What does this fold into?
Amino acid sequence: MAKQLQAIRGMNDILPDQTPVWRYLEDTVRCLLECYGYQELRVPIVEFTSLFARGIGEHTDVVEKEMYTFSDRNNESLTLRPEATAGCVRAGIQHGLFFNQIQRLWTMGPMFRYEKPQKGRYRQFHQLSVETYGMVGPDIDAELILMTAAFWRNLGLTDQVTLEVNTLGSVEARANYRNGLTDYLKAHEEGLDEDSKRRMTTNPLRVLDSKNEATQHILEDAPLLHDYLDEESRIQFEQLRAILDHARVEYVVNQKLVRGLDYYNKTVFEWVTDSLGSQGTVCGGGRYDGLVEQLGSKAVPACGFAMGIERLVLLLETLNLVPDTVNTPIDAIIIPVGNVQPYAMTIAEQLRASSAKPCVLMSCGGGTLKRQMKRADKSGAALAFIIGEDEVEKGLVTVKYLREEKAQQALSLEGAITLLATV
Ligand code: ATP
Ligand code: MG
It folds into this structure.
């Protein structure tokens, strides 16, 4: 027997009983983004590989080992996007969106990373990416954080997530810290895990993220990022904190929070949860003031974040926070008996077009009245509209109440429309 067809490992189907939760989440988020005046930008899923290498940084995990890269028929090296920011910056430069302008943008869709699939970590996953350009902060940094806090409020997740904030300082301060940290790590090299030894020279700040216990122990006495901060970053961080304090958004300052991608500076933040095991970060972001220039245009200040949709869906499901209303109920099912499809299907169209916009299902595929009534019951519809030759002749429909003890009745089209407006 032929081997059964399978999806690629780590790339999931989202089945019909799951899509309502996704849409609930996406709609909630979209609605809030509109309240804050953000506009949607859609960028391609594939870009030239060089964009990500230049944008994200050669020595990041993403670029070193997680990208889906291939040659197209013209031998161009292309990559399935592992994140959306590089593509948004490319689009903004290409279409002149940054020239003397402020932009508040968002995009949502699939990202691709070659990672070890596990709960909350997949090879195709979805992100909401929010990006702002042309504002130096800290007001916009705070706006983004306040907006994420509003997401959690609207989704009932406030008690489940904790905010961590940090500042990485200016590019220069960060470079100085990098040197200080590298010197310290070199002096303690023999105690470090293999990954950290390698990162010590390529991307030392990432060593701070190491989950290795021996490495974490060594890090206890490592130089602190905040001792290297420039005055401007320090003041900006204070101002950000003042806004968060005034809005009563709780947070923890975590000096070891550096984020995985190279392009961050100044403000960085993450929202983490304890409810998902080790895949606990549901949202992460910060400033990337150097990125636009790094990708070849005049420097433009920027700040943004990315939210992992799968992890939030998991969280909503685990905590039973999905409202019943996410499923669209079927109001009525039309049951044609005999050769009455032309009449029955036109009635269905007229019912759906009525002002209450009811959900009307047509019992297609034929069958006896008994079989069709079973189908009606299974559909969950509140009402069945039975249409036989007698009904066609009189211009009526016979209404049967499927979920209530109520006698059936004959109604005109207008009567049926009125009834549907009340279910
Ligand atoms: P992690 O430390 O979990 O690998 P990251 O720093 O690589 O996260 P970002 O690049 O900041 O993640 O992406 C933002 C968010 O996207 C993450 O906080 C997470 O919610 C989600 N995310 C990242 N990688 C994956 C993945 N492979 N599968 C599912 N969600 C992911
Ligand atoms: Mg990662």
User: Anything to note?
Assistant: The chain is about 35% helix and 20% strand.
